[in-house]
């Protein structure tokens, strides 16, 4: 039996996202529900936990993509390292098969568990520190650097105008005439 979900939006339109066989069960749930804006599921299906099925406080659609794809922009693609990327034996020099298998297994287990242990110990403090640094940098950029740059641009507007005039009067005619003089030169390369 499929999972039946119904949600009533502010306009009053019902959206049916499940099987049509469970329509009576969903209507009963809609009538018994005290809070019309919360989404309740009729039954557990597809291996869902009870918390996922009936928790109105957590919007599962917001957390699921975050848990599945943790590097959507590929920032850390360089860290996709496997045992074969680090240790590779050529055909001429080889260790025993069991040594290779155990080394591979221990490498992967050690890499994963050390990462998890260090993450448990340091992830929260480092995330707080980096959030503070980014907040300070954002503050400095918004309230200090941007106004200073705009202030300098306003003050030096006359210098920009003067430089533009110097380029238009002195440099551009020279470069234009040089380009016209050299535009008639043709080179033909031949192989002997």
From TrEMBL:
Membrane topology: Peripheral membrane protein
Stretches that traverse the bilayer: 120-145, 151-171
Region listing for Disordered, in residue ranges: 1-34
Keywords in alphabetical order: Cell membrane, Golgi apparatus, Membrane, Transmembrane, Transmembrane helix
Signal sequence segment: none
Domain of life: Eukaryota
Gene Ontology CC: caveola; focal adhesion; Golgi membrane; sarcolemma
Compositional bias (Acidic residues): 16-34
Pfam families: Caveolin
InterPro entries on file: Caveolin, Caveolin_CS
Cellular localization per UniProt: Cell membrane; Golgi apparatus membrane; Membrane, Caveola
Entry keyword annotation includes Cytoplasm: no
GO terms, biological process: caveola assembly; cell differentiation; regulation of cytosolic calcium ion concentration
GO terms assigned for molecular function: molecular adaptor activity
Family: Belongs to the caveolin family.
Protein's job: May act as a scaffolding protein within caveolar membranes. Interacts directly with G-protein alpha subunits and can functionally regulate their activity.
Protein's recorded name: Caveolin
Organism expressing this protein natively: Oncorhynchus mykiss
């Amino acid at each position: 039996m499929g999972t039946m979900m119904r949600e009533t939006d502010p306009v009053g339109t019902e959206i049916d996202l499940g099987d049509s066989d469970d329509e009576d069960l969903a209507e009963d749930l809609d009538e018994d529900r005290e809070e019309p804006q919360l989404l309740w599921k009729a039954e557990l299906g597809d291996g869902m936990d009870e918390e996922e099925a009936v928790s109105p406080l957590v919007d599962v659609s917001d957390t699921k993509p975050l848990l599945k794809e943790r590097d959507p922009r590929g920032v850390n693609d360089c860290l996709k390292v496997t045992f074969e990327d680090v240790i590779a034996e050529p055909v001429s020099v080889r260790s025993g098969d069991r040594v290779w298998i155990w080394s591979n297994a221990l490498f992967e287990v050690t890499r994963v568990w050390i990462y998890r242990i260090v993450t448990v110990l340091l992830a929260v403090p480092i995330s707080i520190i980096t959030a503070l640094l980014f907040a300070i940098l954002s503050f400095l950029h918004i309230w200090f650097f941007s106004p200073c740059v705009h202030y300098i641009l306003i003050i030096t507007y006359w210098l920009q105008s003067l430089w533009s005039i110097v380029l238009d009067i002195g440099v551009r005619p020279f470069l234009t005439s040089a380009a016209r003089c050299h535009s008639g030169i043709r080179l033909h390369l031949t192989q002997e």
